[in-house]
Automatic annotation (TrEMBL):
Residue ranges of domain Ketopantoate reductase N-terminal in the record: 3-151
Official protein name in the record: 2-dehydropantoate 2-reductase
Organism expressing this protein natively: Streptomyces tendae
Keywords of the record: NADP, Oxidoreductase, Pantothenate biosynthesis
Enzyme class: oxidoreductase
EC number: 1.1.1.169
């Protein structure tokens, strides 16, 4: 397949490199020093599953430089989603199926609102990876999983083809017959992990070992479940308890990208995590005091480290 990967960071870099190693024609869209390093030496992925290096030059600096594609993977930060969709519409890859591996529940709404509804597949990924230095991505564990599915019956064949491409690349990939529910299931956990590790300024082991912060973790997830159910998503009413039990199985040192970005003074995806829960809750009349407090506490950091801090 000809695959365009928009965003060559931890997520896009890891999955894109594996797909390239399996014989697919992968082109990354990157920028800055990362772009120049990949253009010069290829993208290097260090992984417990084995290191991978892509061919030099397998990268462009703009979506407008892409050629025709059989699949577009979107792996940019959430604030770039609208711009990506708009640029895709005028690119040579404009007719390709699009699969977003971004966080959150807002991503596909944005993409489906700007691209044709038949193009956008639903999907989530499970991986921990980051850019270690320009041209180098570090995959932190053996986990590299994608779950995807169609939003419309007419997408079933495309969904199967994309699923096969991931599996052929040695990536764990599953089909979902209710992809909206699958996306929300991850979102509940992601909001809980992000909200608590960022506000506590520590990993999940610290969060879950103290009564008050453990209760905060549960309540943030329970509010997110309530919003999902108000949206018509078929989550069990006790799904937050299930995710809390899951959090007890995680490595104590595990944290979130929101926490990492906060510690590094970077821009935060908060408006699409706890902030996104608040926005949806306000429209639906669902009380979410815990997520609102998290969003308020972290608000000064949304655009990066505040001046003078």
């Amino acid at each position: 397949m000809r695959i365009a990967v928009i965003g060559a960071g931890g997520v896009g870099g890891c999955f894109g490199a594996r797909l390239a190693a399996a014989g697919n024609e992968v082109t990354f869209v990157a920028r800055g020093a990362h772009l120049e390093a990949v253009r010069r030496s290829g993208l290097i992925v260090h992984s417990p599953l084995g290191d991978v290096r892509t061919s030099p030059g397998s990268v462009v600096g703009s979506i407008s430089d892409l050629g025709p594609a059989d699949l577009v993977l979107v792996a940019v930060k959430l604030w770039d989603t609208e711009d990506v969709a708009d640029r895709l519409r005028s690119s040579a890859a404009r007719d390709a199926p699009v699969l977003s591996l971004q966080n959150g529940v807002h991503k596909d709404t944005v993409l489906r609102g700007r691209l044709t509804d038949e193009q956008v597949l639903g999907g989530v990924c499970f991986i921990s990876a980051f850019i270690e230095e320009p041209g180098v991505v570090r995959h932190n564990s053996a986990l590299q999983k994608v779950v995807l599915g169609p939003y419309r019956t007419g997408q079933a064949a495309t969904s199967r083809n994309v699923l096969a491409a991931f599996r052929d690349a040695g990536i764990e990939a599953e089909a979902s017959d209710d992809i909206e529910r699958t996306i929300w299931e991850k979102f509940v956990f992601l909001v809980g992990l992000s909200a608590t590790t960022a506000t506590v300024r520590g990993p999940i082991g610290v969060v879950r070992s103290h009564e008050q912060s453990r209760r905060l973790l549960h309540d943030v997830m329970a509010e997110t479940v309530a919003v999902a159910r108000a949206c018509g998503v078929r989550l069990d009413s006790d799904f937050a308890e299930d995710r809390l039990d899951f959090c007890d199985t995680l490595p104590a040192a595990m944290t979130s990208s929101l926490h990492n970005d906060l510690e590094n003074g970077n821009r935060l995806e908060l408006p699409w995590l706890s902030g996104g829960v608040v926005d949806l809750a306000d429209r639906l009349g669902v009380p979410v005091p815990r997520n609102r407090t998290v969003a308020d506490i972290l608000a000064p950091h949304v655009l990066g480290r505040p001046a003078g801090s």
